[in-house]
Amino acid sequence: MQPLIDHARSFGRRPEDFASLAHGQSPQVLFITCSDSRVVPALITGARPGELFELRTAGNIVPPYASDRPTSEAATVEYAVDVLGVSEIVVCGHSHCGAVGALVRGEDLDAVPAVRDWLAQAEPPSDMPDDDPAVADAVRNHVLAQLLRLREYPCVQRAMTTGQLRLHGWYYEVHTGSVRAYTPDTDSFEAL
C-alpha cells in the first residue's frame, strides 16, 4: 500500500496540469471493461484524465436493460450517451478472465453469492473449451454478447440510429499487452 500512498502524495504537485478538469468533462469514449486489476484502460489507451468515461464491472457484464429496475450500469451508459454525448463505446474483455472462466467451467460459486448472482446475468458461452487458461474464445464471444446487450438500451438505439454512436469490441491479452478489435467484415478479432 505504501507505494500507492507515496504516488498519491506526489500526484497533485502540478495543479496546473489538472486545472482545466474543474470546468467539466467531455470524453469521446465510454470504455466498458472488467474490474480486474490487470486491466487499466488509461494505460492500454494512453488516455489522459477526462478522455475516457469508464464503466468497470466483474466480467465486463452489461446487464439487460430494464426500465423498472435501474442499475448503476444502465445509469452510466445513459449518462455517457445522453449527457456527455460520447460517440464511441468500447467493450473490452481480457484474457485470463476469472468471471468468464467461471462461466465456462460451470464453477460452484455458492460461497460468493453476490458474484454468483451477478454472473447469472451473463449467458455462459456455449461449446467453449474449458481447458484454456486464457479463455480467449469464450471472452471474445462474451464481448460480442455484451455489445448485443448494449444495443437493447434505448439511449444506445437512438444514438446509433442517428449515426452519433458506434460500438466496438476489444480483446486485451494481459500476458502480452496486445489488443485486438472485432472486425465485422471478417467476423474476427484483429490486431489494432
UniProtKB/TrEMBL annotation:
Its cofactor is Zn(2+). The keyword Ribosomal protein does not apply. It is an enzyme of class 4 (lyase). Binds 1 zinc ion per subunit. InterPro entries: Carbonic_anhydrase (IPR001765), Carbonic_anhydrase_CS (IPR015892), Carbonic_anhydrase_sf (IPR036874). It holds the Pfam family Pro_CA. Keywords: Lyase, Metal-binding, Zinc. Belongs to the beta-class carbonic anhydrase family. Reversible hydration of carbon dioxide. Catalyzes the reversible hydration of carbon dioxide to form bicarbonate. This is Carbonic anhydrase. It comes from Streptomyces albiflavescens.
